[in-house]
């Protein structure tokens, strides 16, 4: 998946992983639940849930993690504790803005089912939910997502998954075109050993005229063609054309996964570099846009039960804890530039991949948000040559 070809070698000269997806990181899985009502149905449902599931038990053996907010126009949940403690305790769910609560409940249910001691003999749990507003396409007030959908997305998670208008990406708009889920990966070689760094994005940002594909001003070309064309679509229904231009009022949220032994501080540094990929695609991080990133490592897991000698009587026996002083393998800062370049390259490709895989959709107001491919075809334009095989 991804774009099937690496074209941004100027950023990073290493290869993609086997699938060119975030799931190239060993053990990481992704699942979707897509909710899509028939055209003409009321309310118009175009939404869903996407789950990013680290390997193993996130509560008992926590992945090191970090969060980075470039522009905080967003309603993500759980980031405060991720920043304070530097770890994840649950899978990550992505959905629409008004369904964060349902996904929070799903993650609580998932954790409580696996850990009877939560809230009794140990602390509570910190669900992480990320969101974008799909209201322009989806009838977001219907709040169609339920906790059961969140659990279903986790259960559906696997190594292979679809991109584009699926899961949380079903109703998202990117650069005035159909956006959604995109992913890419890069192999990072350190000390003679290959590691993987993967990115998954939920794209719902950008102004049409700003779109750039591998440095080419595709958005401007589309805008010029649209201004020269008739204003209405051939089926009598207004299409989203030049209306996709203007202010950037959407958002993009992203997850980075890696098997590199990076600590939370280093993961936060990596997370900042997603903005390089955003900018290279033409995003300028607008006032009304939320750019939020969560990054985690599958190495150096943090033992929840460390130091627990199990001497306290309990109705819910807990696993024996490990030592309070742990020995870990640490990534040296001299390797960070290569990681930064890999994040930037994978982020740019993931954004483009979300556009290439998404299909056009008719939204709640009857208007069509076209796919990138449809918009180019309608304008008599083609993808840049470097992306022709994508």
Automatic annotation (TrEMBL):
InterPro entries per UniProt: ArgJ-like_dom_sf, Peptidase_S58_DmpA
Gene3D superfamilies: L-amino peptidase D-ALA esterase/amidase
Superkingdom to which the source organism belongs: Bacteria
Pfam families in alphabetical order: Peptidase_S58
GO molecular function: aminopeptidase activity
Record-stated family: Belongs to the peptidase S58 family.
Name of this protein: S58 family peptidase
Protein source organism: Bifidobacterium platyrrhinorum
């Amino acid at each position: 998946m991804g774009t099937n070809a690496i074209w941004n070698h100027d950023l990073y000269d290493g290869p993609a992983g086997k699938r060119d997806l975030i799931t190239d990181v060993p053990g990481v899985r992704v699942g979707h639940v897509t909710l899509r009502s028939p055209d003409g149905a009321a309310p118009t449902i175009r939404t869903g849930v996407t789950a990013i599931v680290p390997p193993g038990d996130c509560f008992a053996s926590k992945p090191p993690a970090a969060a980075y907010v470039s522009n905080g126009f967003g309603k993500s949940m759980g980031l405060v504790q991720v920043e304070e403690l530097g770890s994840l305790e649950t899978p990550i769910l992505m959905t629409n803005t008004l369904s964060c609560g349902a996904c929070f409940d799903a993650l609580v249910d998932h954790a409580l089912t696996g850990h009877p001691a939560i809230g009794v003999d140990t602390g509570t749990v910190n669900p992480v939910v990320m969101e974008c507003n799909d209201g322009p396409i989806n009838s977001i007030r219907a709040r169609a997502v339920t906790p059961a959908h969140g659990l279903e997305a986790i259960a559906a998670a696997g190594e292979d998954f679809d991109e584009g208008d699926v899961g949380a990406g079903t109703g998202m708009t990117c650069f005035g075109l159909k956006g959604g889920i995109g992913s890419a990966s890069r192999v990072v070689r350190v000390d003679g050993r290959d590691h993987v760094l993967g990115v998954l994005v939920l794209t719902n940002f950008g102004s049409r005229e700003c779109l750039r594909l591998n440095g080419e001003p595709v958005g401007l070309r589309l805008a010029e063609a649209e201004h020269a064309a008739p204003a209405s679509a051939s089926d009598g229904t207004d299409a989203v054309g030049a209306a996709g231009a203007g202010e950037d009022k959407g958002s993009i949220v992203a997850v980075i996964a890696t098997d590199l032994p990076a600590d939370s501080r280093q993961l936060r540094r990596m997370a900042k570099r997603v903005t390089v990929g955003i900018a290279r695609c033409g995003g300028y991080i607008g006032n009304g846009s939320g750019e939020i990133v969560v990054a985690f490592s599958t190495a150096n897991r943090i033992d929840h039960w460390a130091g627990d000698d199990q001497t306290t009587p309990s109705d819910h026996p807990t696993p024996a804890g490990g030592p309070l002083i742990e020995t870990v393998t640490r990534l040296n800062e001299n390797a960070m530039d290569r990681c930064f370049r890999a994040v930037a390259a994978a982020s740019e490709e993931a954004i483009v991949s979300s556009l290439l895989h998404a299909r056009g959709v008719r939204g709640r107001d009857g208007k069509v948000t076209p796919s990138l491919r449809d918009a180019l075809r309608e304008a008599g334009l083609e993808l840049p040559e470097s992306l022709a095989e994508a």
